[in-house]
Design a protein that fits this description.
Shape: flat
Strand content: 5-15%
Number of strands: 20
Helix content: 25-40%
Low-confidence stretches: 1-6, 359-447
Structural class: alpha/beta
Radius of gyration: 26 Å
Strand order of the largest sheet: 1-2-3-4-5-6-7-8-9-10-11-12
């Protein structure tokens, strides 16, 4: 009886070693992401696809695949009917214009593919022209990511000119140098387009001219709900047309304006507009040189705005006085669910203001994601109130005041069941009696903590550097703490012997080990 290869790792190993490979004809999804596959490997893999007509998803992203491999794959998928293939991920490879031309042939003939990811390859204008011709004939593709290539203004124009002839819902063209010309072409098409809901133009230097074109079209377009123009402007003067468009637009739900050098004056202008905007729900302003004055402007806006549910203010210059203003605004605002302030300059005074505010809103069903930063720390993110079940915390070392306020807030919360935090576990675990899940970013086993805490049932330590000593300590801890039933250690540098010891221990005690 012929044996079929069903596990991705086994498939990748067979391809790399040149061993005979038989992929199960009933396999529905293949994820060969980040296996360092080359053209010869994909050519061998493509031949196997002739025996499978059930695949719905193929992921070959983050490999070393060039045009030869992509051509073989495209020919196989075109030659043999694959009526269920809906997603094809080819990001971060070496695909150039020739490979894009082969993919274009596939798109012309395929009637099932709905998602195509080509970001971070070497596709230039000519390859993009080939893809755009195919998109005029393909009526099923709904998502395409061609970001991080070199399509330029002409390639972007070719792509967007197909929008009224296909069914694209999401278009990602980040970092392609489309400039104002490409943005203007997009804006022109969006005036009449009724299918596209999400556009990402991050890092394209569209400038004021591009902003004006998009702002103008927002008066007419009624379907676009998400717009990303991160890293496109050199200040509020260039971004101003787009900001002013928010006064009248009633469609956009999400706007990303990060890394645009808006500064406090730009944030003040934006806040004045958002005070009367009634539709925008999510706003990303990371990396905009926002200081305390800008934070105060946002705080004043929050007293009036009742639709924003998420604001991203990471990587800015907000200090204690700005944090206090934001914390006070949250007393009155009942709709904001997420406020992210990672990598700012908030100290214990600002942290204390947020902790005080969280205690006062203990009965409100609003999640407040707050990043508390001391002068010696990097960050700590909170998501706390009486009905929130998860807290997310970054890697930090809070001073005693900041940590004490955080710990006292948690002691008043009786519903929190999952916590992710960095080094400061003791004050939390010793007092919190409901917590069942823990995910530290940096882990040191505290024997006393795990002996006294009898509610914790899960520990997630993926992607840390716990090493052999940390893993050994975990093994010892598991021997006396029988409440912990789920242990995840993936992505750590642990010797096979220690890993096997923990795995056997977990299996013997009928626990889950990943």
């Amino acid at each position: 009886m012929e044996e079929f290869c069903q596990h991705e790792k086994a498939i990748a190993q067979a391809l790399k070693t040149g061993a005979k490979i038989n992929i199960s004809p009933s396999l529905h999804s293949v994820n060969l992401h980040f296996y360092r596959l080359e053209d010869k490997d994909v050519i061998a893999f493509s031949k196997q696809l002739e025996h499978n007509t059930h695949l719905t998803c193929i992921n070959l992203g983050d490999n070393n695949i060039g045009d030869a491999g992509i051509t073989a794959l495209s020919k196989s998928l075109t030659k043999i009917p694959h009526p269920f293939l809906s997603s094809l991920y080819l990001h971060v490879n070496r695909i150039s214009d020739k490979g894009a031309e082969s993919l274009a042939t596939l798109l012309k003939n395929n009637t099932s593919l709905t998602s195509l990811d080509l970001h971070n390859n070497n596709i230039e204008t000519i390859g993009c022209l080939s893809l755009s011709k195919a998109l005029t004939q393909n009526t099923v593709l709904s998502y395409i990511n061609i970001g991080g290539n070199k399509i330029g203004p002409k390639g972007a124009t070719a792509i967007v000119n197909t929008l009224n002839q296909n069914s694209l819902i999401s278009l990602d063209m980040y970092d392609n140098g489309i400039l104002a010309e490409g943005a203007s072409s997009l804006a022109k098409v969006l005036r009449t387009n009724t299918t596209l809901t999400s556009v990402k133009l991050e890092g394209n230097n569209i400038g004021k001219k591009g902003a004006s074109a998009i702002a103008d079209t927002l008066q007419y377009n009624t379907t676009l709900t998400a717009l990303n123009v991160t890293s496109n402007f050199k200040g509020i003067e260039e971004a101003s047309p787009l900001v002013e468009a928010l006064r009248h637009n009633s469609t956009l739900l999400s706007l990303e304006l990060g890394d645009n050098h808006l500064g406090d004056e730009g944030i003040k202008e934006l806040s004045n507009v958002l005070a009367i905007n009634t539709t925008l729900c999510s706003l990303n302003l990371h990396g905009n040189n926002i200081g305390d004055d800008g934070a105060v402007s946002i705080a004043n806006m929050l007293y009036l705005n009742s639709t924003l549910t998420s604001i991203e203010l990471g990587v800015n210059e907000v200090k204690d006085s700005g944090a206090i203003a934001l914390a006070e605004a949250l007393r009155a605002n009942t709709t904001l669910a997420t406020l992210n302030l990672y990598y700012n300059k908030i100290g214990d005074v600002g942290a204390k203001a947020f902790a005080k505010n969280l205690r006062k809103k203990i009965t409100v069903t609003v999640e407040e994601l707050v990043n508390l930063i001391t002068e010696e720390a990097e960050k700590i993110e909170l998501n706390v109130n009486s009905e929130v079940t998860q807290m997310l915390t970054g890697n930090t070392q809070l001073t005693s005041i900041g940590l004490r306020d955080l710990a006292s807030t948690l002691q008043m919360n009786t519903n929190l069941s999952s916590l992710e935090l960095g080094k400061n576990l003791s004050s939390i675990l010793r007092h919190h009696t409901v917590l069942t899940s823990l995910t530290p970013l940096e882990f040191t086993v505290d024997d006393g903590i795990f002996r006294t805490n009898n509610t914790l049932t899960e520990i997630h330590l993926g992607g840390n550097e716990i090493g052999v000593s940390g893993a050994t300590a975990i093994s010892q801890m598991l021997s006396y703490n029988t409440n912990i039933t789920n242990v995840q250690l993936s992505g750590n540098r642990v010797t096979p012997e220690v890993s096997k010891t923990i795995e056997n221990q977990v299996k013997t005690q009928k626990r889950q080990f990943l």
